[in-house]
């Protein structure tokens, strides 16, 4: 089977990400060799179909994927560059600048052009090879992070890899990547953990009043401390920059609340500070693209049961707007004398999950696609 | 039809909450009279089936529900207490202490015992009578907030009302209520808006890396600034107390990140601060009860399709644990030669939504209940 991926591929570190990459690459027709510091993990990875144990007679890998923890990535990359002088060597750590600095400090100048960074974006709550799956990166962004000296062949190799595993390749430099993930992943994690941390104090009766909003806001707070100490530590500068802005705004809000505290006739400025917070939040949340990173313009059709009562269709369209989904097209299906009609709602395909889930949460009956 | 609700009921203010209460009470057999400062809104409410326009020959209301904005609630309540000297008068504003203070300042001492606060907990993104629905409060907490002078009949009336509309009555005093909603609703709203507010800065390419975590964390940021200025202003003290603690912890995190910034060998203390943040978040998020306010201990069974490949069942159980749901029981159903098996997973019924949604997000095929 022909593949866009240079083969064989050596996957070093068979956790969730390395394991899933191996499975995906195997399905894409690449010969995958696996290795892990833990022999047990390596054996499990082979059993789960991540790849094969390297044999002495195997040809040298053309592509090496280092899926080791960020703190050891640089050493492993340097070793790989020296061991396989022909291979493109990429790491898949979720933070890129610190890894690049580490490689620059360790690697020989002549090896550096064969190094390239990568970050296949995927769910974080899961971990371990036991959770690996070949379709983990399907439709997700695959960030390719060349440094100024990276050879074009390395970029081509990773674009081919991203395509073969069904991801959407995106190219950024290391600092742009780290700023981006600080915004879309690391700062939201810190904020969700801060919110969840305030829930140690209230009574059970108080928590009994919790609704969907609190659960959504704190869902990602249930994640691995060890993993996140590594990530936040490795991206400290970018995360601190964004959190610094958050702190400034939080201080404004606290000042506004203090002036409103018990005051019958609060200052306009205080109310303006609160309104500005919510309004900017409205604008910010509407900038978030759909599930596949806004990669597609295709429409999807969601079919909703509409009770034959005055205002029901209007309510549906109102709520679709409130959910933040643009209506692209609407087709109604209604039998005379029947108590319900069907609304076929065409929307941006990347918003389908959001709309289906949100409508269901609001009590609408949504027909399965 | 007999009902536990004193009838007729006068609903003053027919927005989402007042409108939904009217619909629910009508279905429960109460005679509902509606009034709103806007004649257009009143007419629409009647058309949507919230209730009827009061007629001169109508008997006086036994129960008055004031669903006016918090800033005018006290005046409307006082007027109602004076207009109907026999009626129990309740307001449904989402903040209780400031309303109670307002009523105490305005109302005659002999009227005060007939006043009682209430807060039917319901979704906030929606607004307006067009979005009203009779089942809005189904299975949700209905907080009853008597003051020390409230007559027992008023408490009985609201318990009856809560029961008739399918809510779960919960009794708290005003300050306990305001502290509770600060924790479960107001502070999460501020934090979600703060996160969303940071999304005005990044490039579209950066936002293209967004995943489900960011969307969940910021979903409630898409809410009405005018409404939230009222709510946060009316509950400024309780919100400021919780946000003050958040600010202290945020400062610790910023200090830790600064010490980690570019440092090859970061201090143990800094890493401990980050690990503590995530770990406390883990504990906090696990305290949140399920959809119905943790009201039930009954089990629910979720049926999941398990591909017949090594590790799949283990992966399912691992992920169920990672989702934070305790497995109460497991039954397997497997036909020889069939490529998939069924896992019937028994869990706390209040976790069913979370598990079903999370497993689906992770790509599992979950059979509909």
UniProtKB/TrEMBL annotation, chains A, B:
The lineage of its organism: Bacteria, Bacillati, Actinomycetota, Actinomycetes, Micrococcales. Its EC number is 1.3.1.12. Residues 301-369 form the ACT domain. It comes from the Bacteria. It comes from Brachybacterium tyrofermentans. GO terms for molecular function: prephenate dehydrogenase (NAD+) activity. Keywords: Amino-acid biosynthesis, Aromatic amino acid biosynthesis, NAD, Oxidoreductase, Tyrosine biosynthesis. InterPro entries: 6-PGluconate_DH-like_C_sf, ACT-like_dom_sf, ACT_dom, NAD(P)-bd_dom_sf, PDH_C, PDH_N, Preph/Arog_dehydrog, Prephen_DH. Pathway: Amino-acid biosynthesis; L-tyrosine biosynthesis; (4-hydroxyphenyl)pyruvate from prephenate (NAD(+) route): step 1/1. It is an enzyme of class 1 (oxidoreductase). This is Prephenate dehydrogenase. It catalyses: prephenate + NAD(+) = 3-(4-hydroxyphenyl)pyruvate + CO2 + NADH.
């Amino acid at each position: 089977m022909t593949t866009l991926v240079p083969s064989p591929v050596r996957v070093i570190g068979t956790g969730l990400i390395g394991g899933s990459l191996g499975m995906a690459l195997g399905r894409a027709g690449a010969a995958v060799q696996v290795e892990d510091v833990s022999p047990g993990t390596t054996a499990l990875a082979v059993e789960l179909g991540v790849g094969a144990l390297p044999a002495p007679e195997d040809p040298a890998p053309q592509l090496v994927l280092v899926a080791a923890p960020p703190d050891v990535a640089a050493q492993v990359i340097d070793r790989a560059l020296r061991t396989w002088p022909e291979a493109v060597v990429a790491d898949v750590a979720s933070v890129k600048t610190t890894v690049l600095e580490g490689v620059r400090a360790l690697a020989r100048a002549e090896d550096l052009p064969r190094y390239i960074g990568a970050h296949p974006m995927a769910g974080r709550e899961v971990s371990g090879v036991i959770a690996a799956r070949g379709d983990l990166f399907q439709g997700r962004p695959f960030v390719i992070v060349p440094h100024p000296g990276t050879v074009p062949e390395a970029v081509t190799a990773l674009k081919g890899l991203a395509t073969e595993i069904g991801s959407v390749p995106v190219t950024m430099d290391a600092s742009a990547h780290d700023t981006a993930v600080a915004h879309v992943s690391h700062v939201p994690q810190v904020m969700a953990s801060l919110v969840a941390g305030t829930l140690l104090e209230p009574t059970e009766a108080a928590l009994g009043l919790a609704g969907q909003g609190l659960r959504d806001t704190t869902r990602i707070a249930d994640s691995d401390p060890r993993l996140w100490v590594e990530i936040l530590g490795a991206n400290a500068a970018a995360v601190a920059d964004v959190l610094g802005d958050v702190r400034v705004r939080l201080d404004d809000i606290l000042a506004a609340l203090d002036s409103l505290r018990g005051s019958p006739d609060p200052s306009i400025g205080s109310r303006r500070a609160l309104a500005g917070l919510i309004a900017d939040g409205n604008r910010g949340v509407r900038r978030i693209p759909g599930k596949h990173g806004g990669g597609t313009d295709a429409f999807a059709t969601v079919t909703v049961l509409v009770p034959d009562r005055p205002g029901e269709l209007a309510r549906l369209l109102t709520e679709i707007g409130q959910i933040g989904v643009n209506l692209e097209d609407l087709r109604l299906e209604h039998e005379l004398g029947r108590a319900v009609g069907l609304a076929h709602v065409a929307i941006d395909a990347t918003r389908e999950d959001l709309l289906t889930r949100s409508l269901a949460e609001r009590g609408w009956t949504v027909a399965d696609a």
